[in-house]
Here is the input.
Amino acid sequence: MFRGRSRHTLDAKGRLAIPARFKEFLEKAGDDRLIITSHKECLWSYTLKDWLVVEQKALQLSEHDTAAIAYFDFFISGAQECPVKNGRITIPYELRDHAGLQRDIVLVGELKKFTIWDKDRWEAAFSRAKEEFDRASKELAAMGL
Here is the structure.
């Protein structure tokens, strides 16, 4: 699983080192590539195995759910396979541009995926999220977490 949060630097060619714990997870999963796609203000990164599950779920969407179809059109059409080489990935320009990635990057482990954020966007999003912590903690407590 992808866990933890860490800061990294993106070079001019779009190369990004991934944390050792993420590399270890990929090695254990027998995967040397990520599927990276755009999502709101950041990028979502999946192993190929977990991405195939996302695609299968997308195939089950009702053709009448136009909002979900429109979202998946955006989400799936942005997906690109990014090999992990020497502990780094190269993020294509289109994805970097969508997420506003500059030099300073934050990687956020979210179990089956990890997100890639521009540092400034992450800090703004995290600040907004903190405003919901009280409500969220009550809901999580109700779930036994």
